[in-house]
Amino acid sequence: MRLFFYMNHITDKMDARGVASLTDEELVTLLVEDEQMAHALLTTCGSLAGVAREERARLRMIGGLGQQRARRLMAAVELGRRVAASEGEEPQPVIRTSDDVVRLVRPAMEGLKYEECRALYLTSSNRVIEQQRISQGGVQGTIVDHRLIIKRALELLATKLVLVHNHPSGAAEPSEADRRLTRRLKEAAALFDIQLVDHLIVAREGDFSFKREGLL
């Protein structure tokens, strides 16, 4: 009975003041239909972002959530990611700073459990022609062939490109392999009059820009 009245309170609040007025716990309660489970999820995971990063196998065990509610929650998380990603893709944006790149790719990359590398191909006026996944790997790294990146740039007649990859570990500090890849890609691109504008690393703890740090 208490849950019934609490759910009514949440829906009345949403109808009167809009969905943005709901707290994180109220939003999760609407999805899982259980106030105690919502509280347990946010307490265990630390935040909504923490809930989004959890694997379903572990998620269903928290607070007795179960398979069905876990699936519903993961579907809601994925819907949010896709909406955020689609807003960044249409129309194709103009890249002016490293922050523009981070805003474009973070929704799709920050929650990944594995390392992924993407290339953004740009016109001379910095408008994105295409965003392409170059490679996927494990937790520790992924193999990137700089020749394939240049080949696609030539096919698109791109004059500039930005490389982006994530660090699932949470730290954005570049490895020696990241530095070597950046040097090789810059040199290879220059042979075809293509500019490597930046190489960005996106992680939960922030982001790292080779350009911003004077490494390009």
SSE layout and pairing:
Layout lengths: L1 H16 L6 H9 L2 H11 L2 H6 L2 H4 L6 H24 L8 H12 L6 E7 L5 E9 L9 H11 L3 E7 L9 H15 L4 E9 L2 E4 L7
Explain this structure.
- The chain is built from nine helices and five strands, in the order H-H-H-H-H-H-H-E-E-H-E-H-E-E.
- The protein has 216 residues and is of the alpha+beta class.
- Strands 2-1-3-4-5 form a five-stranded mixed beta sheet, sandwiched between helices.
- The longest helix has 24 residues.
- The radius of gyration is 21 Å and the shape is elongated.
- It starts with a helix and ends in a 7-residue tail after the last strand.
- The mean pLDDT is 86.
Radius of gyration using CA atoms only: 21 Å
Order of helices and strands: HHHHHHHEEHEHEE
Q: Please tell me the total number of domains.
A: 2
> What separation lies between the terminal Cα atoms?
62 Å
CATH superfamily of the largest domain: Cytidine Deaminase, domain 2
In round numbers, the mean pLDDT is: 86
Oligomeric state of the chains present here: single chain
> Could you name the CATH class of the largest domain?
Alpha Beta
State the gist of this model.
The chain has helices at 2-17, 24-32, 35-45, 48-53, 56-59, 66-89, 98-109, 146-156, 176-190, and strands spanning 116-122, 128-136, 160-166, 195-203, 206-209. It has 216 residues and is α+β, with helices and mostly antiparallel strands.
What distinguishing features does this structure have?
50% helix; Cytidine Deaminase, domain 2; alpha+beta; 5 strands; 2 domains; elongated
